[in-house]
Amino acid sequence: MNILIVDDTKFNIITAKEVIKISEIKCNIITAASGEEAIEIMNTQNIDIILLDIVMPKLSGIETLEIIRRNNKNVIILMFTSLTDKKYLEKSFEFGANDYINKPIEPIEFTSRLKSAIKMREYQNALMESYNNLKNTNAQLKESNAKLKTTQIELVNREKLSTIGRFSAGIAHEINTPLGYVTSNIYTIQSYAKTLKEYLDKYLTFIKENEECFFDNKELKELADSSSKLEFILSDFEPVITETNEGLEKISSIIKNIIRFSNEDAYDNLEMNKISELIEESMKILKMELKEYKLDDLFDLKLDLIEDDYIKCNRFQIEQVIFNIIKNSIYYIGIKDRKGNINIKTYKEDEYFCLEISDNGIGIEEENINKIFDPFFTTREPGEGTGLGLSICYDIVVVKHKGHLLAKSVYGEGSTIIMKLPI
Q: Were 409 and a residue from 63, 169, 362, 364 both cysteine, which residue would form a disulfide, CB within 3.0 to 4.6 Å?
């Protein structure tokens, strides 16, 4: 316990020190002969209790009290006074004095008031320690709560992906088998068509070379005349087969993506990916969903993508981010009940690759703009969303990829979400 005695009379300081010694009060005594010296000591040392004389030359005790209280609200201050005028004491208490001691010093009163001040300081310290402990506990609880929320999001996301993955893998394997023999049969048909065309060419050549032999044969002549129809069918056969093969290749590509999607290990890998391809894949899935609900004509899509758009990232996680952001834009365009626009732009800024997705939907209210990445926050009607979409996006971009996810919006005009990934 550090006690500072401030008095311009040396006798009063000696008397106070002697009484403290006789009373066996354990403390460290520091002295000052003026208010200026006391303020300097307060700026450099940790003081618990001040015994401050009211009447001092230059800087009075009340002025010193006022200055000390500006920067130190917790120190216990007892005023030394030999004055009978209560106005000075009232002024002292007005500026934050805790108690007073009469001069000349009477040992019993001095000891009693000083011990009370020491107890007050001890209670104050105990309270401050409890407050700090509570503050630390609260900070730890906040940190634990944040981790719990993050873990909860991760678990929900993992379970969601796991369920979709198992379901998708099952469908993919079911489709894969018939797709295999359909693809095989198409190649066989293509081969047969080629053979038929070769035989037709030989047949027509033979007819032309031996036309005079069959001139009187009406049926053969009619068959020869109808060969143009066969030629048309066979010529049309090739583009039909080509288009069918392209369709089968697309189906095969989708199935491969679904099988990869169902592989949980793929969600931990960072590889070089072309962002424009991830946008294309996300739009393919969205278009299928929109077509199902007859919403494929709800918006116009405009792309402004840079050529060099390779970035090291987790393909499936970033696809999920793009998918969720665009789907969010579509939802808020739909609220306006008119055709809207979605603009997707990519560019490089300092050491970041940036993907900007803008829409002219209903936008986000100003008071909600800082909440949209919070877990379970949603402005949608009950049953229309869990509020996890953008929170998952934030976790993927900021936590897993060490990037940034920013939002800008003007309510009633539209929103812009910017994803920044380190190059």
A: 364
- pLDDT (tens digit, 9 = 90+) per residue, 305-338? 999 899 999 888 898 899 889 988 888 888 877 8
Specify whether the CB–CB gap between 200 and 234 falls below 8 A.
yes
Query: What is the rounded distance in angstroms from the CA atom of residue 347 to the CA atom of residue 304?
Result: 9
Interatomic CA distance for residues 126 and 16, integer angstroms: 27
**Which of 149-155's residues contact partners 24+ apart within 8 Å by CB, and which partners?**
149/375, 150/395, 150/399, 152/375, 153/375, 153/388, 153/391, 153/392, 153/395, 154/395
Taking each continuous run of H as one helix and of E as one strand, the counts in the chain are 10, 12
Burial (CB count <10 Å: 0-12, 13-18, 19+), residue 159: exposed
Spatial CA neighbour of 76 closest among 46, 55, 103: 46
Q: Which of 175, 185, 158, 193 is nearest to 256 (CA)?
A: 175
What residues pair up with 289 in beta bridges, in sequence order?
none
Neighbours of 205 (CB within 10 A): 10
State residue 386's pLDDT score: 47
pTM confidence score: 0.47
Q: Give whole-number Cα distances, 354 to 274, 305, 313, 327, in Å.
A: 13, 10, 13, 19
Phi and psi (nearest 5°) for 386?
-90, -15
HEC string of 312-347 equals EECHHHHHHHHHHHHHHHHHHHHHCCCCEEEEEEEE
Indicate the pairing of strand 2-6 with strand 49-53: parallel
> What is the per-residue pLDDT for 332?
86
Compute the distance between CA of residue 337 and CA of residue 334 in angstroms, rounded to an integer.
Answer: 5
Measured between alpha carbons, how far is 2 from 46 in angstroms, rounded to an integer?
7
Question: Domain 2-105 belongs to what architecture?
Answer: 3-Layer(aba) Sandwich (3.40)
